[in-house]
Every structure is written in C-alpha cells, then in structure tokens.
Specification:
This protein is an alpha+beta fold. It folds into six domains: 13-96, Phosphorylase Kinase, domain 1 (2-Layer Sandwich); 100-290 and 299-329, Orthogonal Bundle (Transferase(Phosphotransferase), domain 1), CATH 1.10.510.10; 425-487, Trypsin Inhibitor V, Chain A (2-Layer Sandwich), CATH 3.30.10.20; 492-555, Trypsin Inhibitor V, Chain A (2-Layer Sandwich), CATH 3.30.10; 560-622, Trypsin Inhibitor V, Chain A; 628-686, Trypsin Inhibitor V, Chain A (2-Layer Sandwich), CATH 3.30.10. The chain has 18 helices and 31 strands. A six-stranded antiparallel sheet has the order 1-2-3-4-6-5. Strand 8 (147-150) and strand 9 (155-157) form a beta hairpin. The termini are far apart. 31% of the residues are buried.
Length: 687
C-alpha cells in the first residue's frame, strides 16, 4: 500500500538514474520509495537509509559487501537486490519492486489463519530462507513486514543483508531486530546463526495460527526478557483442535536452546512439507476462533547496551541469569513507531503483567486438572494423620533394615538402568546414505529404538536414509526415540506448457513453477510470429524437480527472401526467376514504351530490391519497345534550327558539312517524313 506523504525525495532524481515516485513505507533503519529506473525503464523499490547510518563510512562499506552477497542470492522466494550506491548524503539500496501487500496485512485483516493457509504461506518463506542458509547468509530480522505477497500470488522474503550490516557497524553493545521475533541468543548478545532465523519463523507461525504474538509487554525490554526466560506455549492453547504436529513444529522452532531447533531452513522445510502432506483435510481446514488481536506493526528496533548498565528487574528473570540479561538489554532503546501491546492480551506463555482472571479451561486442560486433583486426593488419603502407638524398638529396627535393603536394591536397579540399561547414554551413529535395514541395525546395536519418516530429498536416492532426529553424534538416553528420515527421492512437479506463449510469458511461467530457463535457440518459422515459443525441452507435463532448466526454441518469424533484379529480362525468364526465389510474380496490365528496353522485356519491377517473406508479390511492368515518332522535313532550314527541333523530338542528330557548311543550310536529311523509333539517329547534310 503506497503512502502518499510529502517528502523531500519524492519527485527528485537519485544518482541521475532513479526517479522517485512516491513513499511506500518507513522503518527503523530506512525509508522505502517507489522509483523508476530510467536506464532500464522499470519500477524498483528504493530503500534510502536514515542519515545516522548513511553518514557512517564503515557501515557503508559493510553494506556494500552485504548487498553484493545478497545480489548473488537468486531465488524465486527472495526479493532481488539490484543496485547499491551513494548520491551525496543519500545512501540507498535498489531492490525488486513487489506490487502487492505484506504478510502483516494478511494477519491484520484476517487474524488467526486456518492451518492450511498458514502452512501454505510460511512454506515459500522457509524455502527462500533455506536457499539463503545454504549460501551462508543469515537474515536476522524475520517478521511479517518482510514477507511480501505480490498481486499475482508470488511470495518473497525481503531485506537480506541489511540487519547484518547494521549489527556489525554499531557498537558492540547493540543488537538489531524486531523484539517480538528476536531469538534468546540475540537478546543475550551471543552469536547468531541460521537457528536464530528459525526461532523468528516459529514466532511468526505462532502469530499466523493464533492471530497474536506469544509474548507482549508495555516496553520492548519486557518482551525481550520473556524470550530469554519464558517458553512459547502450544498454539492449540488458543486454537483448540489444532493438530499436535503443528504444536510440535512451532515449539521445535521456538526452543530457548538453539541446539534443540532445526539446524537451518532446509531441515525445517523438510519437516514442514512432511506435516502438510500427512495432515488430514479436517486438520488443515480447522477454523480458529475469533482472533484476540489482528497483529500490530513491528518496525525493527535497535536495543543498545551502554557501558554502565542499570539493573532491570523482571518478574520472569531467573536470578542466575539477571546480570547477563541486564547487561545485554538495559539502557536506552529505540522506540521507532513501536506499538504497545494491550496489557490484557492473552498469550500462550508468561507475561510480566498476568491476568488475575482465570481463562476458561479447554477439554484437554480440564482432563489434566482432574488427573492432578485425583493424584492429590490419593496422596492425602495415603498420609496418616497421627501415630496409633509407638511400637516395639526392635521391630522398628528390623523395619529400618528392610527399608535400607529395598533402598539399596532400588539404587542398584537405578544404577543399572542409567548406567548400562535402557536409561544409559549412547551416541547416535551416522546412518546417512544407508539402507533402512542397515540403519536400523546400527541403531539397534547402539541400543536405540527407531521409527521411520518418508521425506523428499534432492540429493539422497530413494529408499536410502537422509539422516536422523536427533542428528548423528548426539548423545541421548537409549530409551529416547530416534526418527529415521528415509528419502523418497526428489519431489517432482509437472513442467508447464510454454509453446505458443511469448518468450516473456514463458519466463514468467517458469518462475511461477520454480524452474530455470535453459538455452534459448531462435529459428525462422513461416507460420509463427517472431518471439513466440515453438518448442520446449523437456516437454510440458514432464515430471521434474524444482530448478530444472527448460530449453526453448523461439520463432524469428518468416525467413526474409532477397528480391532478385529482373529488369531487361524476357518476361517469361523474369517470372521463372522470381518464382524460383520463393516469391510470386505479377505482370502489370499496361505495357510502357521504353527506348532502351526491347519489346517483351521487363521495363521495371516493384519492389526493385530489398527482401520479402516467402510468397510475397513482385509486380513486373513489360516494355512495348520504343515509341514511333514521325520525322518532319527540315531541308532548306538552317542547320542549328533543324538540329534543335529534332533533339526536342527525342532523336539523335548527326551533321555532315559540305564545303565547310559555309551557308549553314540543310541541303539533305535522312530519314525524312517517316515514322521511326524514338531515339533514332537523323543525318543532316549542311552546305
């Protein structure tokens, strides 16, 4: 949605190339404009950095390197970086312009989304993130505002590289990101990796499914504390009936410990698609209750850590972690357009301002509460209120001996269980690229029980093991379950039909199908206009994996044929020559007189040169020979007068002087008083 607000850059030309049309949005680091690239004649998104960043030469150098890295990341679900530069005090990035709206707009208008829609919207985001992680890039600011949805349905993830550039250029006590989606390790000032992006994706998916964020507070620091100390609850607490697999997916992504999250976008994408494939239609189409909150705008905040941190208390902070968190978060923080969430907003995890009114219990929560109450009653019934009598001291001693023996046996059993039995720790062996039988045997030998899950994989052949969850090398108790991921081979998709479309339309279809454009060859075709696809390889309908290159044969239109010159040729010979060239000869009805072209020969043709397409027409005009003209008699006339008159009639004149032609009088003329061809020679004898 464009924001038409007066702005000093609107209507100006940046770097003599980008004509700024209007202001689109403003964030914590930059303002985004709709601009036109005058050189390439296309609309682009022009991201102009705020002055405090544009004046930092060190930052601009890092931004240039990050922009180059992001520009090399070419993926159908990632917004392309096209250019980067400076124009005086204006530092800018040029990005692909996506006309449409953001995921924030979807959440704001629809609230909680059905699982089918939520998982479908998050899938291309994770796919684009997986490509970035594979290329060694981390986003650091995943949020609904950075997920762009084009009017034609394309979904793209934007702002790669900018957060990293800001983080590395600010003081060591600063961190960048939108606090609602910030991972615990970033809050604590630790190193970020791909798993930090995964945490943000999990928070965003929670918000899509429930219509609200898991943590809220009056100021950003309260939300940050909850990321470190709280636990993201299952979305089903707010959306009863939500599939357990979806709960597990969200909580897997939002684990406080990065080691317990998916390792990167690729691992998350495999599990996400496995869940989407295996959920029933009823589970996918579950309609959530009316959302409590349709989401709020979340600009990127910069939270700084000063050299002398102040003590910040939170009812959620663990005492042992307070100094570390206070050092990471205390001090000033930017409040750029930061919305304050309502204090009464219900969340799936803890809040620094808990609601004293108990929420209605779901059926599952009610059953759990009933079981806890039953256990409490059983314990109360088994506890004696008073001793009936003191008893015999010897009997009490024997009782203590029995108790000690039982305790020793229990301790021995526990030692065996946790030392050598099913509770003992063991390391998961590497089973990738092995058959299922081989993998299960290795796991069994190590003391583990395993289950299998089928997944698509582009690199591992069908039937072989892709990996395990937990991963190889992880030490766990033997009684804990191990999942074997078995490859179904690459996921294949039918290639779209491209023949009959223009080359640009074919490119768009390939982009939608997430296929690559292969070699383009051009050839003449008499029946197909130039620029239209004649053939494709592989053919339409062929199953292929994403990224498959499709070669196209494109028409150059009918082949041009040079027009032969047939002027002066006999009519029949001229017609044969034109038809032999693949053209059509047409003879004009009227003949013309021509003193240089004999009768029956071609006097002129149209067109006389250039090219025509096959079957084009060449019009021939045939000569009727020279025109016949009567020669008048000029005998007795002055020679000069006679010569001038004859030349005006189109004759050539030859003069023979007798006795030097002293008198200049025509004595004789040949021919005379006859009809002769135009241009004939007339001889005058002059005395």
């Amino acid at each position: 949605m464009q924001e038409h607000v007066s702005d000093r850059l609107v209507g100006t030309l940046v770097d003599n190339r980008y004509a700024v049309q209007s202001k689109l949005a403003r964030g914590g680091m930059s303002t985004v404009y709709l601009a036109t690239d005058l050189r390439l004649e296309r609309d682009v998104a022009l991201k102009v950095l705020h002055p405090h960043l544009a004046g930092d030469d060190t930052f601009l150098g890092r931004l240039g390197r990050e922009a180059k890295a992001a520009a090399r990341l070419s993926h159908s679900h990632v917004v392309g970086v096209l250019d980067q530069g400076n124009d005086g005090q204006t530092a800018y990035l040029v990005m692909e312009y996506i006309k449409g709206h953001t995921l924030r707009d979807v959440i704001r208008s629809k609230g909680a989304l059905p699982p089918r829609l939520g998982l479908a919207l998050i899938d291309p985001v994770v796919e684009g993130l997986a490509a970035a992680h594979t290329a060694g890039m981390i986003h650091r600011d995943i949020k609904p505002e950075n997920v762009l949805i084009a009017d034609d349905g394309r979904i793209k993830l934007g702002d790669f590289g900018l957060a990293r550039a800001v983080t590395t250029s600010t003081s060591t006590g600063a961190l960048i990101g939108t606090v609602a989606y910030l991972s615990p390790e970033l809050v604590l000032g630790n190193q970020a990796d791909a798993r930090s992006d995964i945490y943000s994706v999990g928070i965003m998916l929670y918000e899509m499914l429930t219509g609200q964020q898991p943590f809220s507070g009056e100021v950003p620091i309260q939300v940050a504390y909850q990321h470190v100390n709280g636990t993201v609850g299952p979305p089903s607490a707010l959306v009863p009936g939500l599939a357990a697999e979806v709960d597990e997916l969200v909580q897997w992504c939002t684990s406080n410990d990065p080691e317990n999250r998916p390792v990167d976008g690729t691992a998350l994408l495999q599990e996400l698609r496995h869940i989407r494939t295996n959920l029933t239609d009823r589970e996918l189409d579950l309609q959530p209750p009316a959302a409590l909150d349709h989401g709020a705008q979340n600009p990127t905040e910069i939270i700084t850590r000063p050299s002398h941190p102040t003590t910040v208390m939170s009812p959620l902070a663990r005492p042992e972690r307070q100094p570390q968190i206070a050092s990471a978060l205390s001090g000033d923080y930017a409040t750029t357009a930061l919305p304050s969430a309502p204090a009464a907003q219900h969340t799936a995890a803890y809040s620094p301002y808990p609601d004293t009114t108990p929420a209605p219990l779901t059926k599952r929560a009610r059953r759990k509460a009933d079981k806890e109450a039953e256990k409490a009653r059983s314990r109360a019934a088994a506890t004696p209120l008073r001793s009936l009598r003191e008893g015999n001291p010897r009997r009490r001693g024997a009782l203590w001996v029995v108790i000690l023996i039982i305790a020793a046996l229990l301790a021995t059993g526990a030692g065996w269980f946790f030392g050598m039995g099913p509770g003992s720790p063991a390391t998961i062996p590497a089973v990738a690229n092995k058959t299922v039988a081989q993998a299960q045997l290795l796991l069994s030998d190590a003391g583990f029980q395993s289950s299998t899950r089928d997944v698509f994989d582009d690199d591992v052949p069908s039937g072989l093991v892709v990996g395990t969850e937990p991963g190889a090398g992880t030490e766990i108790r033997k009684f804990q379950p191990v999942a074997l991921f078995v490859s179904k081979g690459p996921q294949l998709f039918e290639l779209p039909k491209l023949t009959g479309q223009t080359l640009e339309q074919a490119k768009t279809e390939l982009n939608k199908a997430e296929m690559a454009l292969g070699t383009i060859t051009e050839q003449f075709d008499e029946g197909v206009a130039a620029g239209v696809v004649l053939a494709q390889d592989p053919a339409s309908g062929t199953p292929a994996r994403h990224g498959t290159a499709v070669a196209l044969a494109v028409s150059k239109g009918p082949q041009p044929i040079p027009v032969p010159s047939v002027v002066g040729m006999d009519e029949n010979d001229a017609v044969d020559a034109i038809e032999a060239a693949g053209l059509k000869a047409e003879v004009a009805k009227d003949e013309v007189n021509d003193k240089k072209v004999p009768k029956g020969a071609v006097a002129s043709q149209s067109p006389s040169n250039g090219t025509l397409t096959r079957g084009g027409t060449v019009t021939l005009t045939i000569s009727d020979g020279p025109k016949m003209v009567r020669v008048p008699s000029y005998v007795g006339k002055q020679a000069k007068e006679a010569e001038q008159a004859l030349r005006q009639l189109g004759f050539e004149v030859k003069v023979n002087n007798v006795l030097g032609g002293f008198f200049g009088t025509v004595r004789d003329q040949d021919p005379v008083n006859k009809d002769v061809p135009e241009g004939s020679v007339i001889t005058l004898t002059v005395v």
